Amino acid sequence: MKKNILYRLYTGAFIGICLIPSALMPFVKDGESKENRTLSELPKLKTAEGKLNINYLSDLGDYFSEHFAFRQQLVTADGRIKTALTATSPNTDVIDGTDGWLYYSATLDDYLNINTMNARQISGICHDLRLVNEYCGRSGKSFLFTSVPNKSSLYPEHMPFNYVPADAPDNYELLSAELAGEPFYLDMKAALADTGSSIPLYHATDTHWNNLGAYAGHCAIMGALGRETCPADNWTVEADGRLGDLAAMIYPAEDAKDTQVNSDHAFTYEYQGHFKALDDVTIDTVSESGEGTLLMYRDSFGEAILPYMAEMFASAEFSRITPYRFDEAAISKGDTVVLEIVERNLPRLARTAPFMPAPEVAEDMVFFTPSKYVGEFSEKENCPVIDWEDIPVHIAQNGAFTLIAGALPESFFSGDSASVYITVNGTTFEAFRASEYTDCGNGFSAYIPADTEFDSIEVFTQCSDGLAVAVEVPADKMIRKEQ
Question: What is the pTM of this model?
C-alpha cells in the first residue's frame, strides 16, 4: 500500500513539474530572444484568406516549444551541463572550444579544408573582381577587395582537438594565391596575423572581431589605399563589454558578456538620414575631419570597423545591399570603393554577379575563331544539334539593364580558366563568371542596356588552353524571369 502511494506521489510530482512551464506561460514572459533567430507567433485558426489553417496544431506546437515559461533558464542550464560535462554544444550552430572559446559551426568546412570551391569557381571570382576593378578605374575610382578571416582561421588553437583539418588549401588560401600581386587585393588574414597583438583580436564567445581587431583591419585597409589611419591609442580591456552572439545561443538567460577593447579616441563623425542601428542595410556618415568619399560594401564585420572608416572620410556610405552595385549611379557616391566579405561567405561571390554594365569588347580587338560551334539554329554547316535544355539562358529586366545569365555544359570549358562573351546585335560583351544557375563554376551573367532588342544571342567561351566554343541561342528559347 505504501509503495503504491509513493509511486502515485512520484508520478504526480513528475507530471506536475512538467506542467509548470505550460501553466505559467501566460504569467512568465522571457522577453526578447537572444538566440539569433525569430521566434514563431501564436497561430490563428484561420489564415489571412479566411480559410481553415490546416497547420494550426503543428504551428501551435512550434509556438509552445519556443515560448514555454522559464525556457531561457532551462536552455541555459542544458547548455552549461553539456559544455561542462561533455565539452559539446547543445546548439548545432555553436562549437564548444577550449578555454571558454566558442566558434560558429558555419565556419567548420573552412577550418577542416573540405567542400572547397573548385579551380573554375576560384578563377571565376578573381576574373569578376578584376572586371570590377577595371570598371572602377575607368570611372576614376579606387577599388579594394578584402576578406575577413573566420575566427577559427586566425585562432585555431582553441578549436576542439577532434577536429583535424585536411592537408589541403581552403577557399581563403586558394583565392589569396590567385589574387596575389593584384593591387586591389588586401590579404586581411596576413595583416591581422602580422599585428603581433598580445590581446586577442576576436571575441572569445562571439563570431566577430573586437574593436581592436576592427581597428587593425581599418589600418590594413587604409594602408592599402595609401591613406592615413584613424588615431586611436590607450587601449583598455573592459571585462563585460559585449554580449557574445554565440554565448547567447546556448546561455540565453545569462549575461554572458565577453570582453571588449576600447581606445580613448573621441569620434567626431555623424550619422545622416534615418539611422537606427549598425546593422542597417544602408548607413550614411559625414566627418568634418575626414577627406574624400567612401562607398563600402560590408557584412556584420563592418559594424565594428565603421566608426574608424567613417571618421577618416568626409562622407561615406556603408551598404549591405546584394548583389553589390558597381554601376555608375552607385560608385558615384565614393571616390574610394571597398568590398569586404567574411571568409565563410566567399562562395557567394561565385553565385551572385555584381550589378554593373557588362564591359564591351573593342571592335578592333582581334577576336578568336571558335573551334567548335554548336546549336541547331545556327547557319553554320555541319553543326551538331544539341538539346536547348542543356544550355538554359535566363533573361530578366533589372532597372536600366537586362540581365542575361545561365550555365554552359562542361564541353565548353577546358584548361585552368575561361572567359565568357556574349554577342548581341553585333556588339560583344564580356560576362561575369558568377551565376545563380549553377554551383560548379560553369555560369555566366551579363547586364546589357535594357532597351536592347534581339532575336538571338551568341555565347562564347575562350579557355586558357586555346579552346573556343560558341553557341547561338534564340530569344524565344530563353527563360524569362521577373527580377
Answer: 0.83
89 by Cβ neighbours in 10 Å (0-12 / 13-18 / 19+) ranks as buried
Q: Contact, 220 vs 192, CB < 8 A? A: yes
**Orientation angle between helical segments 302-312 and 211-225, nearest 10 degrees:** 50
Closest CA to 206 of 305, 303, 89, 103: 103
For the segment 31-56, the average pLDDT, to the nearest whole number, is: 62
Tell me how far CA of residue 477 lies from CA of 379, 388, 429, in angstroms.
17, 8, 20
The mean of the pLDDT values for the chain is 84
Cis status, amide bond into 43, omega within 30 of 0: no
Residue-wise pLDDT tens digits, 269-303? 999 999 999 999 999 999 999 999 999 999 999 99
Question: Taking every pair of C-alpha atoms in the chain, what is the biggest distance, in angstroms?
Answer: 103
The CA distances from residue 49 to 42, 52, 53, 199, 429, in Å, are 17, 9, 10, 57, 47
Closest listed residue to residue 378, CA positions, set 478, 473, 477, 479: 473
Residue 309: φ, ψ to 5°: -70, -45
Question: Among 226, 237, 232, which residue's Cα sits nearest to residue 308?
Answer: 232
Domains and CATH numbers, the chain: 2-69 (no CATH), 103-350 (no CATH), 372-480 (2.60.40)
Residue at 184: amino acid letter: F
pLDDT digits (tens, 9 = 90+) for 187-207: 999 999 999 899 999 999 999
User: CA nearest 256: which of 34, 476, 475, 426?
Assistant: 34
What does residue 170 show for φ and ψ, rounded to 5 degrees? -95, 180
Q: Which of 84, 17, 68 is nearest to 251 (CA)?
A: 84
Cell representation of residue 164: 583535424
Angstrom distance (rounded) from CA 452 to CA 284: 35
Sign of the alpha-carbon torsion through 192, 198, 199, 202:
positive
Q: 163-189, pLDDT tens digit by residue?
A: 999 999 999 999 999 999 999 999 999
